[in-house]
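Consider the tokenized backbone below.
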């Protein structure tokens, strides 16, 4: 069985060479997550892949609290896109100071002019994307939505309608916020690098993606857990 290390540090939603984590207000207890994600039957299922089994047995899987706030994580993910962790953390901290309750209230965002948002260090494009998220959640009345009633495909279709929110961002939300167990972000650079190294994949990009999909198929319905291990393994063995 794979080893686990529980991290209680406040998580991030960013791809910066480490695992992406979520951020929000309500969160699920870490003990519950561990019991759910590392159930023996799930480990046994993934261990059918001999190479993945070796990774799991050699890897300490770190964990963070799960924050179930899709809206705030989308906002945060936009801030963090294509920035170093240090720069993004600084900008996000300044951004959050705009809100008295330390929460990016949609109505407040829409009442701010573009220059006010840009003054904290956001680019014009990112400021526009953040406004898009706020407007979409208000227009579609998503703040009270029970996300557990929606399938992965429905959530992907819904949220990628927002300009500035792509498939990868929604997949990370599905994995780290909504705890969906069978997500495989084939276009994630970290997953690609890990699988190329582990399985010795060769060929052009299209061929490699096809090989990755085939290798991950037997991992169903626990591809999310497999990805957690691959991310951690890659980070520990650069």
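A designed sequence for it:
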């Amino acid at each position: 069985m794979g080893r686990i290390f529980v991290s209680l540090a406040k998580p991030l939603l960013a791809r910066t060479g480490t695992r992406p984590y979520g951020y929000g207000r309500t969160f699920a207890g870490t003990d519950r997550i561990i019991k759910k994600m590392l159930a023996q039957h799930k480990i046994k299922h993934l261990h059918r892949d001999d190479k993945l089994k070796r990774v799991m047995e050699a890897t300490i899987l770190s964990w963070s609290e799960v924050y179930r706030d899709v809206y705030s994580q989308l906002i945060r993910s936009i801030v963090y896109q294509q920035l170093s962790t240090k720069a993004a953390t600084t900008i996000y901290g300044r951004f959050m100071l705009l809100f008295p309750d330390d929460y990016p209230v949609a109505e407040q965002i829409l009442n701010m002019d573009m220059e006010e948002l840009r003054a904290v260090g956001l680019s014009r494009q990112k400021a526009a994307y953040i406004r898009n998220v706020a407007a979409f959640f208000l227009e579609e009345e998503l703040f009270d939505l029970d996300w557990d009633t929606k399938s992965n495909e429905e959530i992907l279709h819904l949220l990628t309608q927002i300009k500035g929110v792509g498939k990868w961002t929604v997949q990370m939300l599905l994995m780290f916020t909504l705890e969906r167990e069978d997500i495989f972000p084939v276009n994630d650079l970290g997953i690609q690098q890990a699988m190329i190294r582990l399985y010795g994949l060769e060929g052009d990009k299209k061929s490699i993606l096809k090989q990755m999909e085939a290798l991950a198929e037997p991992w169903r319905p626990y591809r999310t857990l497999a990805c957690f291990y691959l991310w951690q393994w890659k980070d520990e063995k650069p």
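Residues 124-139 form the longest helix (16 residues).
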